Structure formats: C-alpha cells, structure tokens
Amino acid sequence: MAYRKTPAEIHRLTAAREHLVGCATRVVAEVGWSQASVTAVADAAGIAAGSVYQHFPSKAALAVEVFRRAAGREVEVLGEVLHGPGDPVERLARGVEVFARRALENRGLAHALLAAPAEPAVGAERLAFRRRYRALFAEVVHEGVATGALPAQNGEITAAALTGAIGEVLVDPLGGPGDADTDALLADLTALALRCAGAPRS
Amino acid sequence: MAYRKTPAEIHRLTAAREHLVGCATRVVAEVGWSQASVTAVADAAGIAAGSVYQHFPSKAALAVEVFRRAAGREVEVLGEVLHGPGDPVERLARGVEVFARRALENRGLAHALLAAPAEPAVGAERLAFRRRYRALFAEVVHEGVATGALPAQNGEITAAALTGAIGEVLVDPLGGPGDADTDALLADLTALALRCAGAPRS
DNA sequence: GAAAGAAGTGAACCACCGTTCATAGCTTCC
DNA sequence: GGAAGCTATGAACGGTGGTTCACTTCTTTC
C-alpha cells in the first residue's frame, strides 16, 4: 500500500465537512430550502459544486444532516429545561418560553425547521422531530396531571397545540413586521401555554 | 364580424374550466402540490397539457384558483358558525369542532391547504387565509373577553394556537394511522380550545 | 523525486416540467 | 357550403438544478 490517511488529513477532511454543513445551515436559514441549491451551498462554503459529493452522496443527505444537527440542538435544549428543576407547571412555562425565544432569535432557521417548504426527505425528518418536541411537552403535561397540578386532559393534544402555536406565530408574526416587543410576545405565549394546559389562574 | 360566442359555447367553456379546477383540486388533495404537475392535472381532467393554458395563464394561476376555492369554502363555513347563535364560548367550541371535523373528513385537502409544501404563489395565499382563520377566531375570543366570559388575553395568540393545534394534529395524526376515534379526538380538541381561551371549567 | 492514490474541480450530462406553437378540428355567421 | 375565428392538441423547446466524470492538484509512501 502506498497511501494511508494521516491523522492530520482526517482532521482536515472532517473539518471541511463540518464547514460545509455549517455553511449549508446558514444558507438554508437565510434563503430557505427551496433556494438552497447545491451550487449556492458550495459557493457559500468556497468549494466547487462537485466537491459536495465528496462529503455527501446526494443533496438530500446533506439536507437531512443540516436538519438533524439544527433540530437536534433544539430538542436537547428543550429537554434540559423540561427535565430540569421545578414543578411541572413551572417547567412547562419555561420550556415554552425557551423554545419560542430561541426560535424568535433565529427566525430564519426556525422557519426552515418548522415550516418552510422542503424536499420529502427533510419533510420526513421534520415529522420525526415534531414528534419529539411534542413528546417532551406531553411528558411534562402528564406529570402535571399526575401530581394534580393540571386537570385531566389529552396531553398529546396540548403538546401539539403548544408547538403549533409557536409555529404559527413564527410563520406569520402577528404584531406586524417589527419585533414590537419580543418580551411581551413571549409573556403572552407562556400565558397561553398555561391556559392550554389548564394551570390554575394566577 | 363572423364569430361571436354563443351562450351554449360560453357555458361549455366555463363548465370545462370548472371541471379542470375540480379535477386539479382532487389531484392536489390526493398527491399534494409538488406532485400535481400540469400533465398530471390535465390527464385527470381528460384534456391535453397545452389545453390548461386555454383557461389559465400559468400553472401558478391555476394553483391559486384551486387554493382560493377550497380555502374560501372553509372560511365561509367557519365564519357562519362563529357568527351564529349562542354565547361566544359555545360558538368558539363549535367553530373549532367544525373546522377540525371538516379537516379530518378531507385530510388530503386539509393538508394541502394548511401544510403541504407548495410553490410561492400558493404559500402567499396560504398566509392570507391563515390570517383570516385567525381573525375569525380572534374576534370571538375578544367578544368573550368583552362579555367577561373569558379572562383577559392576547386573542390573536389564542387564535393562532387553535389553528396551529388543528394543523399539528392533521399533519401528524397522534393516534397512529387509524382514525381510532374521530369523535374522541374532536372532543379533546374542543376541550383544549376552551382551556386555551381560559373558559371556566365545566 | 517519483509512483500511487485520494480529494477537488467545473464543464457537461440528463431528467424533469412548465410553457409555447404550428396544426387540426369545431363553431359561428352569411 | 365556405370563410373566419376560436379552441384543443401534443410534440418540441428552454430553463433549472442535481449529478457525473475525465482531469488536475495535493498528499502519502518509499
């Protein structure tokens, strides 16, 4: 044999791959899936279109990777908050707030993850992650029902409503174009969440 | 002059157009916007691909027409229920129930209207109609707040949550594939809606 | 330094799809 | 019946965008 990947080379390759995924994520967040052509992504990463295929077998595979990375981060953060300290109702409120705040802080990415038109492979991925968000919320709702803090209810539906509400607000900002008051919006959203779950009025 | 459209001819033309729109709606409901190519739609209507352009200047125009017809019906029905008799809370519950029931009865179409990936022109239309659904719900919520039946709240967000929740449930049926129990689902949804709006517990 | 092999390149390829257009078939009017 | 005008047709066109591939460039090994 006359060639073996040296550690430095391996590192260079994975770095290139990471760089590609990062740039692709940025492009998707900025212009959406439909406009994120292989050429556009490659340009953003400073490589040739053909080189993308050194790292991924197809555009769909790259897209799925981009989606999984970004959506995975959100699931992780949400999970930490929902499984953190505090009683179920508090955690639910904080979870909604964090989830929504992160989405509002990176609207483009959030839109891409939750709503923007995408190829079927990404659509399937989106479905899977929606289930995970929903499951996380539902878990806390069930907990609240068990401890008596919340009334009996279909937790899955409550959870669906929470993600749906945040998605709605993201897709079509109600307060006009400007972020007139993000904090107020977040406050309204958490209040909605507590009503949705049937938490006692404060 | 040697030619003028006779009434019968006019009727034939508009009928052909209607037939085209109807078939296109069916195709979209069955396979989604992305798979509803001009050829597929023309085939379904039993005409040549080129003939579509006798009735519509572009595929986008046909798509928009299909969307407007279908979404317009829903707005109308929802409006009638929400503006009908009964106190605001009752109307809200009935509105959610009717909206969701119709969606569940024609899942394919509902999915196309609310969620399925679509070309930009349809996306814009969708945004406009979402605002209308939302406005209708918000109106009733405001009414309820005014009469004291509901607590003070951001009605727009409550309305967004309601449409979002129904959309969520549609996109990813929670109870597995089967309609295990549509009535139970509807009951859970209306219960959710009332909690969302903060209606007194029954 | 030279051979061997991998990564990078970008122009060309190809499939798909909306759209057009020359042609054929019908309808209207005299 | 025939001229004029409209509608219907479907093969051909053109743009787009993912993918390929012969070739260049860089890295490793001896």
UniProtKB/TrEMBL annotation, chains A, B:
> Which molecular-function annotations from GO does this UniProt entry contain?
DNA-binding transcription factor activity; transcription cis-regulatory region binding
Q: By its UniProt entry, which Pfam families does this protein fall under?
A: TetR_C_24, TetR_N
Boundaries of every HTH tetR-type domain copy = 14-74
Q: Which PROSITE patterns match?
A: HTH_TETR_2
In the UniProt record, does the keyword DNA-binding occur?
yes
Residue ranges of DNA binding: 37-56
Q: List keywords of the entry alphabetically.
A: DNA-binding
What highest taxon heads this organism's lineage?
Answer: Bacteria
Statement: the UniProt record of this protein carries the keyword DNA-binding: yes
**InterPro entries according to UniProt:** Homeodomain-like_sf (IPR009057), HTH-type_TetR-like_transc_reg (IPR050109), HTH_TetR (IPR001647), KstR2_TetR_C (IPR041490), Tet_transcr_reg_TetR-rel_C_sf (IPR036271)
In its UniProt entry, what is this protein called?
TetR family transcriptional regulator
